[in-house]
Amino acid sequence: MNNTEFDNEIYENLPPLLKGLTGEFKGREKDIVLLSSLGVLSSCLPNVFGEYDGKPVSANLYVMIIAPPASGKGVMNYAKLLIEPIHKRIIENSLSNLEDCQSANKGKKEKEPCPPIVTKVIPGNISAAEIYSIIKNAHYGGLIIESEADTLSAMLNQDWGNFSDVLRKAFHHESISISRKVEKLFMEIREPKLSLVLSGTPDQLMPLIKSKDNGLFSRIVFYFFEEISDWRDVFQNVGFKKQILFEKASMHVYNMYDALVTRENEKIQFALTEDQMCRFNTEMNTIFEIVKNNYSASFTSNVKRHGLVLFRLCMILTLVRADKEELKLAESITCNDEDFDSALFLVKQLLYHANTVLQNINSDGLSEIDNRLLSSLSQTFTRKQALESAKKLTISERSLDEKLVKWRKEKLIIKVSHGKYKLAY
Predict the structure, then answer these.
(1) pTM for the full predicted model
(2) Helix, strand, or coil (residue 139)
């Protein structure tokens, strides 16, 4: 496993919708578009469930992209376009129903209670009390998508906004409740459904996670890299073309969502084949044993929860590949081997990314990749030698030069002469 860019093979085997969306991107941006789109789509599959560890589960994912500023992670915002027609329809219908109720109540002494606002996309800038109400009234589950992770972490750091426990429980669809004596408020939500798609810099991670042991960390699918993207021609009309691509794809997602919503109480059951279940257990057990014997004990919880992530990825890929008639009529749907292989590949890669993030949390300001690069260098080394080591770790020349400057300031290395350094320890 490594945190290099995803192999091109996975893109060749994606369902047509995702293959088309990712085809317009390259490198890290291609990976970010894939993961953020999967995160958004995980909130667009109502009335679908699978049985995992004896419990019914939906497809909802928590995804976080971590990279430096100006690294290209902003392409995550394209994925939000996929859910906008759904969100717009839900909001418009809800406001119309509210307006009808308010009109009907005019002149009445005893007014009928009006329906709450129903939504699909949930803002990250929200209080703890509000999050319960919005999740309760989200249309078949909600989606929080923010391109700056500190929008959400700022709320989690406030006493009135700390809903980290809500995020942890919602990941497993565990019941959540709130009771406030002063406001005479009591609310209980059974089987909450919530998806989360975030991007941010490494500095924005700790305020959000706080600790690798609080449980939220192991529930998130991380994608981490340190390269900074090159300058691009800002006058090319490429971005607008990509926006149109996602807007067209959003209508496919809208129709898929609509087909599933019309099923009402007749849910589709998703399942793996017998061979896939066997492979699932074999592969995840192998990974678990490797982690248990060679990595931090705290990381084993990530492996277990990434088993659920694997199952959910299989579900998303399978449903996105299905045609509209199948979504309307099928009582059950089975994963094909192509989608299972893609999901398994992603989970193996993403576990490495999660471990890299864990090392960053454990380190005292020095990232795991910095540690690996420093440890690969001789006591005395040249910039050329450092660059050779950096390339093996997929660190760009520009990033290396920035690290050399930073390490000198932090007195980790000493400049001996032009292009020559020595370790300070």
Answers:
(1) 0.82
(2) strand
